[in-house]
Design goal:
Layout (H helix, E strand, L loop, with lengths): L3 H15 L1 H9 L2 E3 L1 H4 L6 E4 L2 E4 L1 H9 L7 E4 L13 E4 L10
Antiparallel strand pairs: 1-3, 2-3, 4-5
Helix pairs in contact: 1-2
């Protein structure tokens, strides 16, 4: 039986195979959040000046614990703004793979 991180990656990759456009758009989405959420010890957020934003991978990585850059990442080409053009696959960052989090 796989561990919870591996199971989550399997589910994410299955969802990606079923609808890559929706999954890419979801991962690229960041919503404004309160400073208090930005101070959470494990949830990964994006700071743009004084604004805090949270995305689905930041939240998922918060569930799995306090790794410096999270345990689940995504691979794929990025546009000039740093957003995924299309996610190719979700990866386990514990395996020493390149950390590409949008």
């Amino acid at each position: 039986m796989s561990d919870p991180v591996t199971k989550a990656i399997d589910v994410l990759n299955d969802a990606l195979s079923r609808d890559p456009e929706a999954m890419t758009r979801l991962v690229n989405l960041r919503v404004p959040c309160r400073k208090e959420l930005g101070q959470h010890s494990t949830i990964r957020i994006q700071r743009l000046g004084d604004e805090h934003r949270v995305g689905i991978l930041g939240l998922i990585n918060g569930i799995f614990g306090d790794w410096p850059s999270g345990v689940i990442g995504a691979e794929g080409p990025l546009d000039d703004a740093g957003h995924f053009i299309r996610i190719k696959r979700f990866v386990d960052l514990r395996d020493g793979r390149l950390d590409v989090l949008a």
